[in-house]
Specification:
Aspartate Aminotransferase, domain 1, three-stranded antiparallel sheet, DegT/StrS_aminotransferase, alpha/beta, binds pyridoxal-5'-phosphate
Length: about 350
Amino acid sequence: MIPPVDLSIQHAQVAAEVAVGWEEVFARTAFVGGPQVAEFEQAYATFSGVAHCVGVANGTDALELALRALEIGPGDECILPANSFIATAEAVARAGATPVFVDCDADSFLIDTKAALAALTPRTKAILPVHLYGQIAPVEDLLDQDVFIVEDAAQSQGATRNGAVSGSLGHLAGTSFYPGKNLGAYGDAGAVTTNSSDLADRVRLLSQHGSAAKYVHSTLGFNSRLDTLQAVVLQAKLRRLEAWNTERSEAAEYYTSLLRGIAGVKVPQVLPGNTHVWHLYVVRVPNRDHVHDTMRANGVGAAIHYPTPIHKTAPFATDGSFPNAELVAGEILSLPIFPGITRAQQDRVVEALIGALA
Ligand SMILES: *Cc1c(COP(=O)(O)O)cnc(C)c1O
């Protein structure tokens, strides 16, 4: 079976370093906070080209805390694409604000920025462009609108747009270090990045019980911190992330070279100005469910990200219609991609795909 992602290859490369780092944490028995967290935050800020990074418990919290740091809440509207992972909408709703869905572009799968601008109202406080599948949304279309830009950078660690790194293009960004992400922890983890020291302080305050000094609680907060053990893993993996993203990119080019011109397969498009980090390699095919099932029966673990647009899920059901999001949800198929995937594996994936189309 070729899995959609194989994390064991990454693990083998960092195992020794993680073991040493974890032994140090065990020796000190300091499991929350500590120098490892601060070092990783500094390293990730530098990697992302921003002044500040605040580690938090997961990517959904990162987005919620970013919105709360901006004092976005009840009565406020936040615009987001209908074709994201549900967490983008959860963060908005949990902050108390109203998610306003807009359609995506059917070729890039990224937020339709014209639709986003058309959805602005006097109540709009933020737009959350999602850098879906590993490439940055055309955020520049959305700037200068008197609303905040909060990037959902969960799938785009290391991606660039016109030279700017994912997580540095908006007022704040939330990212996720869920294990399968390009930079994945060994459990849940996430971070907020920003150039604003005020906003970074505000996120940090909220993330640790509304408390800047021990037992002084200035506001109602959360317990949402980056674990020390996870910081050790992330620091080891961050050193290798650029090389791993290059491996993903080479694998993506190989898929595209094999699939371009195959009738029925639409290969993924990279927007001009973008370097894509290929969190996922997503094609569009007819009879997707049949193709998916047939590939699985032939030992290829393709996947679907995501089968249901958010506005069709139970918690966010609306009667709004987002034709591109609905169209692509029925056609998208994520082919296995991960650092270390072999050409032989990719050949088998493509053979299974072409066989399933017949
Ligand atoms: C993974 C992901 C999140 C949420 O991150 P968690 O760490 O799982 O909470 C948010 N948005 C997108 C687009 C994601 O892929």
